[in-house]
Amino acid sequence: MWLLLAFLSAALLGFYDVFKKKSLRDNAVLPVLFLNTLFSSLIFLPFILVSAFAPSVLGGTMFDVPWWVEVHKFIVVKSFIVLSSWIFGYFGMKHLPLTIVGPINATRPVMVLVGAMLVFGERLNLYQWIGVMLAIVSFFMLSRSGKKEGIDFKHNKWILFIVLAAVAGAVSGLYDKYLMKQLNPMLVQSWYNVYQVFIMCPIILLLWY
Length: 209
What we know:
By secondary structure, the chain is an all-alpha fold. It has 9 helices and no strands.
């Protein structure tokens, strides 16, 4: 069952990238990203409001959003990290083919594994080390094939943007590990989307001005 869910997740992520690429076609990056953060926050807003004003409705369920004001500073940091990853990723995806973006994004779990080893002192098993080496080799081969398509990995700023997006995404994953040790997952998931909207608002207003 879990294997089936893993394949389903991978398929949905593939569709997500395709639709994200299509939404960026002939559109400016930042307005598309703002709408993404806005719609994401609207999905979680009902859970926040119900938990705040009618706590008995969702209390004790996985959808309950506890009101822990003192921890919101950590969630704001999470919002900045994720938004940085999305900004770099959206700009890179707009100017690069998905055949390049996808494999680079696929190296993100490897970065998380290495980060977990360095930050949390975790140890990789043999299969994980093999996965790390394969990711490094595949990235090298991808750079070689990219040159045939006229994309120089060393001098293309959009490649740098995608790499920075992957690094920021890996940092977000490691930070999640830290947050999940002490915070409610729904609290983090709900509020970091809302805070991203507030972060994006002045950027969009500045652009319009």
